[in-house]
Amino acid sequence: MTDILPFLKALISVSGLSGFETSVARIIEEKWSPLLDEVSFSRVGSLHGLKKGSGTAPRPAVMLAAHMDAIGLRVSKITEGFLHITNIGGIDIRVLPGAEVSVHATGSGEELPGVIAMPPADLLPKSAGDGVIGINYLLVDIGLTPRAVERKIRVGDLISFANAPMVLAGDVISGHSLDNRASIAALTVCLEELQDKQHVWDVWAAATVQEETTYLGAYSSAFALRPQIAIAVDGTFAKGPGANGWQTHQMGNGVGLCVGPNMHPFLHRKLKELAEKLEIAWFLDVTPAHSGTDAFPMQITAEGIPTALVEFPFRYMHTPVEMISVKDVYRAGRLLAEFVTSLEADFVDTIVWE
Amino acid sequence: MPGFGKTQLRLLERLCNVVAVSGDEGQVREIVLEEIEPYADEVKVDALGNVLATCLGRGRRRMRVMLDAHMDEIGFMIVAEDGEGIYRFEAVGGIDPRHLVGKQVLVGRENMPGVIGARPIHLMSSEERTKKLPIDALRIDLGPAGKAKVGDRAGFATRFRRAGPSIFSKSIDDRIGVATLIELVKHAPPNIDLCAAFTVQEEIGLRGAKVAAHYFNPDLAIAIDSTPARDLPVFDGGENMTYNTKLGLGPAIYIADGSTLHDPRLVRLLRETAEAEKIPYQLRQPGGGGTDSGAIQRSLAGVPTVSVSVPHRYTHSPVSISRVDDWKNTLNLLQAALKRITTSLITVR
User: Fold this and answer.
1) Which one of B102, B118, B141 has the shortest CB-CB distance to A320?
2) What is the ipTM of this complex?
3) Which residues of B156-177 are buried (b: 16+ CB within 10 A; e: fewer)?
4) Chain A residues with CB-CB distance to B107 below 8 A
5) Which of A117, A345, B155, B291 sits in a 20 to 30 Å window from A302, CA-based?
6) Nearest 5°: CA angle at A296, between A96 and A43?
7) Residues near B329 by Cβ (< 8 Å), separated by ≥ 6?
8) pLDDT confidence bin for A296, thresholds 50/70/90
9) Per-residue pLDDT tens over the stretch A73-102
10) Is B102 on the interface with A (CB under 8 A)?
11) For residue B3, what pLDDT is reported?
């Protein structure tokens, strides 16, 4: 098994915000191409990779989906060389003051370093108080003169987090956009494992776009590829500071297998049985209504697709210092590969509602 | 006049990238000692950890001029262990906790990487989301195998970088003063005895400067620091009346702050020097805040003192911004002003 850490670091060192995934898509395309029989882009920018099965055509197909887009910001207005901002996806505004960012300047084609400024209280309305300052009052400073800013920056330009990945003690990595680039890494582990394994089914690996905003990628890719079953890979909540409720799970202790209305119970049971047979550490995660992942759009695509959700726990979700255990990435990748390998030609016919 | 370019910027980068929280200034002290030892006539590290260096002049009737820059920065101390690499911490110096969530830090002399975490926003009530998180709701997370000691210091992990006319870095306050003072030691003018104080614990009460002034017993003193530029737009488009200083207008000369009425003779020296040498400068808006000058001025039988600062935006936060030209002009102004110092400067008329 190759070391996935350098690839994961590369994935979280680029922007690839929702709707603008090209920078990260290129890195994934380069990594996946040698592992797959065909690689192409969907009409809306999702990356589709096919690894053909050994069964006789027409073969059933399983779609493994992880979204590659990230949350971020964009320029809404320019005042005296300072950039006003608005969000792309669900930004936790508490993390913004003092955060290092990159501004993708369309006027000059450069990627410019910046910092998110929280203006002093004197310059804000009294109502802003000393609580969390709203995103409409925060500014981005790129250290250039107002004239240079006017020349380089346009309203709508993208702003992404710019902090470098940090490897921490105990097989843990932290950085921005691990949600969901860590799952892209897990799919990559799966594809590497499949290189010397026999599988009857076709496998579609999909790096989807715009999960954080509209689920556009998963809706459109599931429709285009029309797999017999689909598995989404995404993050769930890890136990950690201030996080100890039923939604949270121990980081580094295994893969989450999710139950709830977005997931077909039969697929869940199969994944669970396989994890137990192979002694891959796993835990049960529950989502009472909406999983908030690509599992939802894939499930309701076309005439409906049986869908499962494989997860691993994140600390500090939707901050620039998201944290995961690298062990969990390998576990998820291995479980997916073993599941694909286990699929027999008639598996679809065995899927039942109890 | 000394040159200004890559060498100076590299020195500043090195100084900014190490962590030296008040009371634990060792990493900066090491660089300072290495840089100045070949140039000073006498160097000592005192009881508090100040680096005190003297460069003797050559003329007769030389003034003893104390130049001060503080080595310490704001940061954190680890105060308790929660287990599994997670630690409670307390602020050292004035820090707005709203700058902390989701930032990377370096912990202890080993510079162990860590992050400042809090409850994820998805698991908060909508009411909780609008409230400022106090420091006791935050933790430093070193990863499950991370091991810090209670008492370890931690600082922001931000790396120094250049962008256009600007510098982006943590602790520009006051590594830019330290770098300036190192340059002045390397090019000490012969008309004075230059007494360089690289001080400790400025951010928690000007403690190092107090004992440094006592040791040097100077005729006059200049504190070299970095002061906030609050030159941002006002939310409603109104005029910013409380900018303190502005980036790009040159060194900020102090007239009065929260702890010092700066000596008018020294203020005049700096202004006249700047005008004669055509060096841009600005007067910091009189008001609160303070520098080591507050402690030095009240030392011994009183020391005529002034402050000059390189402006920076976003004080005591993970990333501050300064202009390279403001720094260059500050260094040039000080270099030129020192040459003009004579015994008549502080004669009371």
Assistant:
1) B102
2) 0.95
3) bbbbbbebebbbbbbbbbbbbb
4) none
5) A345
6) 80
7) B250, B251, B279, B280, B281
8) very high
9) 999 999 999 999 999 999 999 999 999 999
10) yes
11) 74
Q: Which two tokens stand for residue A47?
A: 């990356």
Q: What pLDDT does B179 receive? A: 98
CA dist A306 to A222, A297, A332, Å? 11, 11, 19
Identify each DSSP E strand in chain B by its residue range.
42-45, 51-55, 63-70, 75-83, 86-92, 104-107, 112-117, 139-141, 153-156, 161-163, 166-169, 192-199, 220-228, 252-253, 282-283, 305-312, 320-323
- The C-alpha of A18 sits at a distance from chain B's nearest C-alpha, in angstroms, of 19
Alpha-carbon gap, residue A28 to A25, rounded angstroms: 5
Mean pLDDT of chain A: 96
Half-sphere exposure of A228 (CA within 13 A, CB side): 19
How do beta strands A158-161 and A72-79 pair? antiparallel
What is the pLDDT confidence band of residue B348, given thresholds at 50, 70 and 90?
Answer: low
Minimal Cβ distance to A143: which of B123, B146, B321: B321
Give the Cβ contact number of residue B144 at 10 Å.
Answer: 19
Report the Cα B130 to chain-centroid distance in Å. Answer: 33
pLDDT, one tens digit per residue, over A19-57 is 999 999 999 999 999 999 999 999 999 999 999 999 999
Scanning chain B, the segments in alpha helix (DSSP H) are 6-17, 26-36, 126-129, 172-186, 207-216, 264-277, 293-297, 324-339
Distance set, CA A305 to CA A234, A264, B189 (Å):
18, 9, 81
Instruction: Give SS3 for A158.
Output: strand
- What does each C-alpha distance from A56 to A59, A201, A319 come to in angstroms? 6, 9, 46
pLDDT for A301 beyond 70: yes
Look up tokens 């079953």; give the residue. Answer: A229
A150 interfaces chain B, CB cutoff of 8 Å: no
3-state class of A122 per DSSP? helix
Structure tokens at A249: 């799970």
| In contact, B87 and B142? CB cutoff 8 Å | yes
Least CB-CB distance to A131: which of B132, B236, B313? B132
Gyration radius from chain B CA atoms = 21
Chain A residues with beta carbon closer than 8 angstroms to that of B137: 241-242
Q: What is the mean pLDDT of residues A98-120?
A: 97
Residue in B43, B8, B185, B188 with CA at minimum distance from that of residue B30: B43
Residue B94, chain A, CB below 8 Å: the answer is: no
B25 is catalytic: no
Looking only at the bridges linking them, the beta strands covering B252-253 and B282-283 are parallel
Q: Which residues pair with B53 in a beta bridge?
A: B43, B196
Q: What percentage of chain B reaches a pLDDT higher than 70?
A: 99
The count of C-alpha atoms lying within 13 angstroms of the C-alpha of B27, restricted to the half-sphere facing its C-beta, is 22
In whole angstroms, give the CA distance from residue A267 to residue A254: 18
Query: How many Å apart are CA B172 and CA B167, to the nearest integer?
Result: 9
Residues near B338 by beta carbon (within 8 Å), at least 6 away in sequence: B65, B184, B189, B191, B192, B194
Q: Are strands A110-117 and A100-105 parallel, antiparallel or unpaired?
A: antiparallel
The single residue listed with the structure tokens 């882009």 is: A41
Please check whether residue B282 is in contact with residue B249, taking contact to mean a CB–CB distance below 8 angstroms.
Answer: yes
> pLDDT value at position A1?
66
What is the three-class DSSP state of B174?
helix
Q: Which residue has the tokens 């009189």?
A: B286
